[in-house]
Fold this protein.
Amino acid sequence: MPQEKNVMWLAKIIVTLKPVVNDPQGLAIKGGLHSLGFGGVQSVRAGKYIEIVLEAADKADAEGQVDAMCDKLLANPVIETYRFEVQKTE
Amino acid sequence: MPQEKNVMWLAKIIVTLKPVVNDPQGLAIKGGLHSLGFGGVQSVRAGKYIEIVLEAADKADAEGQVDAMCDKLLANPVIETYRFEVQKTE
């Protein structure tokens, strides 16, 4: 009898600071790029990228879990926003 | 007489650790997610996300600049890889 197995999902998550929030890391990168001669750089915003492999019954379940992870741990909802996509993986 | 102007480009850059490189930040996130009850999480890899607005004559110029920025400042080629996409912006 075939046994039902959960599928593995790969979530690619991008967490960014909200536009109104000051971004010292981005400013530092911008300064560094200018020093290196990249004078055409107008602005830099720094964020986080996280890849998670998780087990879930279906895509909706995986997306719900990742959404909860972002809310609870990965992003600070006061100053950050997040977006992600989920795809089947092995 | 219309004056030729450079166009603004938005580059979205993702910098990730190479697969063979140990990722303590990812492991810490994984531990945190398990503690929060997300037992289905198999692996976590942490990386950086950077958005740069730059001035360039055309898309090839913009891509060439961003590639050079990644090589020189944004990524450590010994342990990290990067990928990016460039699109026209205002």
Remarks:
- Chain A touches chain B through 34 residues (CB under 8 Å).
- Chain A has one domain: 7-89.
